[in-house]
Design brief:
The chain is an alpha+beta fold. The protein contains 8 helices and 28 strands. The chain has 2 domains: 7-15 and 30-41 and 67-224, Beta Barrel (Cathepsin D, subunit A, domain 1), CATH 2.40.70.10; 248-460, Cathepsin D, subunit A, domain 1, CATH 2.40.70.10. A hairpin with a 7-residue loop joins strand 19 (322-323) and strand 20 (331-334). The structure holds 2-acetamido-2-deoxy-beta-D-glucopyranose (4 copies).
């Protein structure tokens, strides 16, 4: 969820045309010692996802309200909390103040903690609106609801930029209160990278403003999310890659397999139809009425969440697994089991590294908690019309290069990670060459319905219901 000014824009436009700007380097504060993720983080993350996607207890205002050549640029990217979130640097105001904001394809608002924030931690860098000459004073209060938390502030307009891209009157929320634990480390807010229909502040997301102004060489955003899980890490590790206005071939090999988005019109979430999940080589048979489960592709959430029945069936395939007594919706499994779980999109199976599926210790010494949890908790998901019922977060996205592409239709693409990005033989935890992407026709590993994946997605996107 994020946002920028106009006077500077013309200026920047002209320079961005020719300059393939150098990556920016930002000083990153690090804590000294590595830490283990705490399960309270996971519970909070799960609740966050439930609320965001309309499965929470409190009613979240739903999302349902629901050429000139430019340039592309690789922007510095940091992995926070052992793959918990990924942030980049955004400049706000005049003169610019730099902030670390989570780059979030699952939301569409830009907000940053303001100097007036009373609930923010002392260590959170805050935006000093008084020292910006382009800040538009406003009294319009707005609240953005997230899981167990919320952010309240005033909707304003400001000059916002990332690298050499800039927008002069970007709508954003200067946050005066945020719930506890919403911001950690050096992060000051969120840059939403989904579509404007999803914006609680009813503002156009930064990236869409750039597209409208033809600032981007192509209407693409490319992500490689680095992996520190399973290794020692500090709280904030430079790593991963975010490219605005294109992709970066350093991080993938082969083709990017683009698929048309499914879901509501106008678009809100970035979402694809997921056809199948395989567990230890067996197809699960997702409980969707059509052939595909609408699934948000969400860089801003850590884990993978899905409908109760499917998640229970998935863990039912793992011998010795059981619901985690202390964490509703989560499951634990014997740590000695190497989880072989793949998601299928567009007829290709994309495996998840077992290291990404293990999110820490269970209630017994030999048990581990799995990174796929019950998102819907028995909610009537058939009513989630147009919204996703699976949320595919970083647990999966670390295993592929992901490209979000605006167009007609909007598309999301996955590619195999390059060796430089940890793919192929460079991947620890074997069995996981993210690439193999077994083709259904040849190997019969995916449902036969995938013969014409694109047609199927287009036809089924809006009529999915679940058999509970
Ligand atoms: C949601 O509501 C159910 C039923 O009232 C309750 O059991 C559950 O604990 C609630 N969950 C949260 C996170 O409040
Ligand atoms: C791709 O990423 C590499 C490594 O971060 C960087 O050096 C290079 O400039 C990037 N290429 C493009 C075209 O952005
Ligand atoms: C691809 O298919 C082959 C043969 O069916 C199987 O042995 C292999 O594990 C599959 N690879 C993936 C990544 O699913
Ligand atoms: C089937 O799987 C094998 C081994 O993974 C692979 O070499 C072959 O190309 C696959 N066939 C098709 C049609 O994808």
């Amino acid at each position: 969820m994020l946002q920028l000014p106009v006077a500077t824009l013309l200026l920047l436009l002209s320079t961005s045309l020719c300059a393939a700007a150098d990556p920016l380097h930002i000083p990153i504060g690090r804590r000294k010692s590595p830490r283990d993720l705490d399960h309270s983080d996971h519970l909070a993350a799960a609740e966050f996802m439930r609320m965001r996607y309309g499965f929470g207890n409190t009613t979240t205002p739903s999302t349902k309200r629901m050429q000139r050549r430019g340039s592309s640029e690789a922007l510095p990217f940091v992995n926070q909390g052992g793959d918990s979130s990924y942030f980049g640097t955004v400049d706000i105001g005049t003169p610019p103040q730099s902030f670390n904001l989570i780059l979030d394809t699952g939301s569409s608002d830009l907000w940053v903690a303001d100097t007036s924030c009373q609930t923010c931690s002392q260590s959170t860098p805050v935006f000093n609106h008084a020292s910006s000459s382009t800040f538009q004073v406003s009294t319009e209060q707005q609240t953005i609801m997230y899981g167990s938390g919320q952010v309240t502030g005033t909707i304003s307009q400001e000059s916002v930029s990332m690298g050499s891209f800039s927008f002069g009157k970007q709508g954003f929320l200067a946050a005066q209160t945020t719930s506890r634990n919403l911001l950690t480390g050096t992060v000051s807010g969120i840059m939403g990278l989904a579509f404007s229909a999803l914006s609680a502040t009813q503002t156009t997301p930064f990236w869409q403003n750039l597209v409208a102004q033809n600032q981007l060489e192509s209407t693409e955003m490319g992500f490689w999310l680095s992996r520190f899980r399973g290794t020692k890490f500090t709280e904030e590790e430079p790593g991963g890659s975010f490219t605005l206005g294109g992709t970066n071939a350093t991080f993938f090999t082969g083709d990017i397999e683009f698929l048309p988005m499914v879901g509501s019109s106008p678009p809100a979430f970035w979402q694809l139809g997921m056809e199948e999940i395989t567990v230890q080589g067996n197809q699960l048979g997702l409980s969707v009425t059509g052939s595909q489960a609408p699934s948000a592709i969400d860089t801003g959430t850590t884990l993978i969440g899905g409908p109760s029945a499917d998640v229970a069936a998935l863990w039912g395939q793992i011998q010795g697994s059981e619901p985690m007594p202390t964490m509703p919706g989560f499951f634990q499994y014997p740590c000695s089991t190497s989880l072989q779980i793949s998601l299928s999109f567009g007829g290709k199976l994309w495996p998840i590294n077992p290291a990404d599926l293990n999110i820490g210790s269970g209630t017994q010494p030999s048990s581990c908690v799995g990174g796929i949890f019950d998102l819907t908790q028995g909610s009537n998901i058939a009513d989630n019309g147009g919204n996703p019922i699976w949320v595919v977060g970083d647990t999966f996205l670390k295993n592929v290069y992901t490209v979000f592409k605006q167009g007609s239709p909007n598309q999301i693409g996955f590619a195999q990670l390059s060796q430089a990005a940890g793919g192929g033989s460079g991947t620890p935890g074997v069995g996981n060459t993210p690439a193999a992407g077994n083709n259904s026709k040849g190997n019969g590993s995916v449902k036969g319905m995938l013969a014409s994946p694109l047609a199927a997605v287009l036809a089924l996107g809006t009529v999915l219901t679940l058999c509970l």
